[in-house]
Structures are given as structure tokens and as C-alpha cells.
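Standup notes, structure subgroup. Blocker cleared on the 6-O-phosphono-alpha-D-glucopyranose input:
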Amino acid sequence: VSAERGGYPHFMLKEIHEQPKAVRDTLRGRIAEDFSRVQLDELNLDDAFMKAVDRIHIIACGTSWHAGLVGKAVIESYARIPVDVEIASEYRYRRPLFTPNTLVIVISQSGETADTLAALREVKRQGRRVLAITNVVGSSAEREADDVIITWAGPEIAVASTKAYTTQLIALYLLGIKMAHVRGEIGDDKVRELLKGLEDLPQATEQVLDTAPQLERFAQRYVDTMDTFFIGRSLDYSVAMEGALKLKEISYIHAEAYAAGELKHGTLALITEGVPVIALATQPDLYEKTVSNIVEVKARGAFVLGMTWIGNEDLEKTVDEVIYLPKTLPELAPILAVIPLQLLAYYAAVARGNDVDKPRNLAKSVTVE
Ligand code: G6P
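Run returned:
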């Protein structure tokens, strides 16, 4: 079994470390050599439909839903198409509103999650076009959708999803950039800038893995902690939600993600002496605002691990410890920022003696509704 795990003590750690390759494999062949355009040649969706799309519904569960939240931000800001991100088990039991050219995107690592499939089938029954982002060739989602983008993460064994999430983000970036380009919302220069940024990510993810020892140390704080908070704004908030989920899933510590600007509307009451707070500050345009929220939790005694880009030593003035991420385009930062949070969850679960790869009460693929 240890051989299957490639020498790693757990599948989860192996899969975290496979992310540079997973990201590279998911990008392969999908960026023109001269960075002039996205090549998603597998899509049946033609340019005319991409131009006509007037609304997008993204449907998913769990970690895939969190990827959808980043997808919304990316598609709305580049392609200027309104996007709703919905939890499959909610979406399928109400009567969603469709515009004439609504595109539905389902995201599912396994392609077999019952609620996501039920939503896909209901949408198709209503004559709508469905694009699936999935990691499993031959899965139900892959076979039943009109269009498919495969994430080439390779088999994900650990219940807690890691490399599937980062590759789902890659798929969503590629799709968002493509739609934006086709619709004329971004020009050739911006396309080139974004595609070069994506191309640099495998290398950057490799570099982020070097933060592992720092996270292993910080995770020891979680041995006796029952509560923690993850805060951030905009894209950082979406990543914070995924970080909190990871920690809950495998360490069984209660973790909550909060939009940093929303803390003052209630959550601050829960911050007391010594409560660990993970503060994401990877977005330069929101940096000052986020710092002011970090100051608020520090003033109540929180012990804060901050995350920001390399070179921004300013954060050290405010927080107790800093994780530095390689420089990338701010919109691509989620792919890097999630990795230390995966590592934190992993090491916290190990420190607490939990069964990391098979957490209690959870299944890798949920085929009940
Ligand atoms: C389960 C897994 C999660 C996963 C979710 C959705 O709850 O434990 O890790 O995010 O299902 O799975 P899917 O295969 O549809 O992405």
C-alpha cells in the first residue's frame, strides 16, 4: 500500500504534492503556443453560442461547489455574463429560472454525485445545454452532458479533495478566458497575459509546497483547538471557504469562513484570546481593507496566520506569522492560496491522530440524495 502512496504516509499528502503535475496536465494542449488563444477544441459549443449565452448556472456539491464560486468571479469579471452558483441539492428541488440562452455548468470530480446528476438530468429534460467539468472519463456526468471539460488530475483517492479542486479552477479559468475572448470582452493582450500566468502556475504550485514545514508547525496549535476562522475578501473569501471545509472534514475542528468585511456584523463576538485565525490577503486591490479586518481580530486576542504574496512584508506588522505565495496575477492566486490550507488541514488531522484519508462519516463519492 505504501508503494501505491508513492512513499507518502497518506494519499491526501501524495495528492497535494501531485498538484504541479495535475495543473500541468490539465493545461496541456489547451493554450496556443503563442499564447494567442485558449484551445478547448473538445467543446461542441460554438462561438455563436458562446456569444449568445446570457446567463450561467454553475451546479455542484462540496469542494466542487467552492470551485464554482471562483468560477463565478472569473466568468463575471472577464466575460461579463451573470453567473449563479448553486448547491445541487438545493437547485434540483426548486424551479430555476432560465433565460433564452442559459448555459448550465455542472462540476463534479467523480461525475457520479447523485444530487449533481439529478440536477443535470432535470436541466437536460428542460431542453437546456449542460457542460460538465469532471475528472472521470466515462463517468455519468461525462456521458450525459452536451459538452465536457476533463480535469486531468488523475485518480483522487483521499476523501478530502485537493488536486481535483485546483484543476477545476484551471478548467474554469480556461473557459472564462475563452468566452471573454470570443465575446470581445477582453483583448489579445489581456488573453496573452492571463495565459502566460496560467502557464507559470505548475512551477508556482511547486514553490508553494515548500511552505509545508511551516504549516506542519502551525498545525500543532490545532491539537487542542475546537474553533477557528478563515477570513478573506472576494476570491480570498472563496478560498477561505474551501480551507475551512478541508479542516472540518479531516481534523473535525469547527471552522468557519467569513467574508472579512462581514466580521463586524456578528462574528467578532466569537473571537477571543488565542483563537487561531487564518487571514488571506492575496488581492492587492483589497489589501488595506483586509488588513483593517485583521487588526480587528488581533485586538480581540486572535492568533493570526496571514497569507500574502512574496515581497509584501508589510503584513508582518499585523499578524503573528506569514505564509508567502509566489507572485502571480491576483485573479490566479486562488490556485496557490488553497495549497497551504490543504497542508494545514492535513497536518492538523495527523496531529490529532485522525484517519486522514478516510474521515468519519464521509464518502468520496456520494451516491445517495
Ligand atoms: C463528497 C466528497 C467531497 C466532494 C463532494 C462532491 O462529499 O467527500 O470531497 O467535494 O462529494 O463530489 P464530486 O465528485 O461531485 O465533485
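Discussed briefly. The chain has 14 helices and ten strands.
Next: hand off to the docking folks.
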